[in-house]
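Friendly challenge for the regulars: who can give me the structure tokens for this chain first? No prize, just bragging rights.
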Amino acid sequence: MTYAQSMRKYLLIILALIFILAGCQVTEQLDVNKDGSGKSYTDIHVEQFFIDVLEDFAEFLPENNESMMDSAIRGYASQLDKAGAVSGTEWESLGDNRYTVSFSFSGISALLSEMGAENQSLFTLSDDSLSFYLDINNYPELKAIVPFLADQNFEVYGPEYNQGMSEADYLDMIYFLLGEDGPEAITNGVMEININVPGTITAADGCRIAGTNTAVFTFPIIDFLLLNTPLSFSVAWE
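First reply, four minutes later:
Bragging rights claimed.
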């Protein structure tokens, strides 16, 4: 692979992940077993506005028969599959700017440790509970797990670079950087995580109980991009 091809692949992954975070409807199903192993299945619907931005950027890169989003999702799945705690990574393009990515993991702690977060405070898993907490203070731990968040191409959109910025000012910045359709595309972005636990749910905080063993954690993507308030949930079961 030539240097230009390598850089193209790298930039595709970074750009697509930026836009996946910023302008999408993302639904993840997270199945957790008693031993900490489980499976993740993610459905991603990308706003057409961001697809158009990516296609405009493609004019400045070497030709490729595969679309930029297809290349980026494929690259993302390939990176996941390199982790020893991950197996069975699959991705699929469903058309209409929709993609799915799925993989199994041998353990949440093992996966996070392998990805560079040995002493992380983001996830806490016990025999009968799971919790998640993210704020501006432990955001560097998330960057260790997801290295593209530390990339200079993403940082201008992220919470550390924009710490303390109001939502209105942030959307003004997006208008300047991405054009008049950018703010609406950003505010349309939502992340939903459906957590299936190995027991009957007895308590949930920061998320809603949607079934005997299912809790749902939902937040606007702009809340992640700013982190003016923590993102957190906890669920307990028996």
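The longest strand covers residues 86-95. Confidence is low (pLDDT under 50) at residues 1-16. Your move, everyone else.
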